[in-house]
Amino acid sequence: MGDAYKIAILAGDAIGPEIMAQAVRVFDAISRHRDVVFELIEAPFGAHAYFSHGKSFPDETKAICDAADAILKGPVGLSFEDSKKIPVDEQAERGAILPLRARYQTFANFRPIYLSKDMAHFSPLKPEIIEHGIDILLIRELVGGLYFGEKERGVNAEGLRYVHETLAYDESQIRRVLTVAFEQARARGRRLHNIHKSNVLMSSVLWNEVLDEVHADYPDIEVIPMLVDAAATALCLNPSQFDVMVMENMFGDILSDQGGGILGSLGLMPSACVGPDKAYFEPSHGSAPDIAGRNIANPYSMIGSVAMMLEMSFGMKAESTLVWDAMKSVFEDGYTTADLSAKGVDLKTVGTDAFGDLVIASLEAKLAAPTH
Ligand code: NAD
Question: Residues with Cβ < 8 Å from 28, sequence gap 6 or more?
């Protein structure tokens, strides 16, 4: 009897169900070729859950996630205008995503920014800047900082509306994510870019103090400090200087989307959100309401999130590599999705379903090949 894993499937809103439909095919393909069973349990989460259950993160979904070995989450949320149909506290981030992160304390967010040399034509950057492709691991603290600090709205003594939002971290929150980042740096190129803003923010002063303490345990790692504003420029001008980057929550939210920009699309951005006992996996991007229902969303980010789950939650590194290789081989065969079509390159543009068909066909062939 092989391994059996229970996976909560939160398909999400807008393009969520379209890209999730392709991603779950990976589990099916692997279980047909390997001695492993994946039990997939769908649960409502996000705007559609609010409309059907009155809550964006309903209790039944919490119970399913609690019982699961890992969680696969599609993007959630509505367009800016449609979001107004939902009370502020129940809108996607406040009502669903942040409570999910808080529930499982998924403090370490792994966001690979990766474009193989053969896919470099998808990037808007000039070929001479990224002649070797792009290969960065951005690690974002995910359960602290401004997004989780105390918030207060009111009217002050002068009758003016005001808001207070608090950027709070304690040293243990900083230390645990930095330790993850140092470990990743050790497993990769032994270089760690510490992205901070200590010239302005006291939170960054503490962050850097703790970093020096953690660094003492990792003397083999070179730490390169960089202000977050400078890092935004450097990502465009010379992304090859980066290997592993670590930063607090909001810096990571913004810079990782810029990472999608230098790849050519957010559709190339999977991620893993890892806590002490449980991890969930999701594309870094939102629900893309502007392209929903047209079968043109890129499922790479969702399928890549499955690849990350296979390796990080189930220890299935070999199968995870096959999933990445299958996606790469589809691009190498000259296929592309609408978000990526590069000017001046002769590519065959395929929709969400067809991209999934090609990836699964390639994956099946790789899984069926004899292993040595
Ligand atoms: P978005 O990330 O959904 O879209 C930004 C741009 O990227 C759009 O042009 C979109 O078409 C494109 N894009 C994103 N993913 C794509 C894919 N897989 N294939 C092709 N193109 C893709 O950002 P937004 O429009 O600002 O936000 C839409 C909704 O998503 C909002 O409600 C927001 O709150 C929510 N959101 C959710 C998450 C999450 O679930 N983790 C993250 C960010 C935003």
Answer: 38
156 C-alpha vs ligand 1 centroid, how far in Å? 36
Those residues with Cβ within 8 angstroms of residue 366's Cβ, 6 or more apart along the chain or in another chain: 322, 325, 326
CB neighbours of 179 closer than 8 A, spacing ≥ 6? 214
Whose Cα sits closest to atom 44 in ligand 1?
286
From first to last of its 372 residues, the chain has per-residue pLDDT tens of: 789 999 999 999 999 999 999 999 999 999 999 999 999 999 999 999 999 999 999 999 999 999 999 999 999 999 999 999 999 999 999 999 999 999 999 999 999 999 999 889 999 999 999 989 999 999 999 999 999 999 999 999 999 999 999 999 999 999 999 999 999 999 999 999 999 999 999 999 999 999 999 999 999 999 999 999 999 999 999 999 999 999 999 999 999 999 999 999 999 999 999 999 999 999 999 999 999 999 999 999 999 999 999 999 999 999 999 999 999 999 999 999 999 977 777 899 999 999 999 999 999 999 999 875
Give catalytic residue positions.
147, 197, 229, 253, 257
CATH superfamily, domain 1-117+264-372, is: Isopropylmalate Dehydrogenase (3.40.718.10)
CA 185/CA 218 separation, integer angstroms: 10
Q: Which residues line ligand 1 (CB under 6 A)?
A: 19, 75-78, 83, 92-93, 97, 265-267, 282, 285-291, 297-298, 301, 339
Mutation probe of ligand 1 site: the residue of 287, 300, 336 with most atoms within 8 A of C-beta: 287
How far apart are alpha carbons 45 and 92 in whole angstroms? 9
124-263, superfamily in CATH?
Isopropylmalate Dehydrogenase (3.40.718.10)
Q: How far is the CA of 288 from the centre of ligand 1 (A)?
A: 4
The residue ranges of every structural domain in the chain are: 1-117+264-372, 124-263
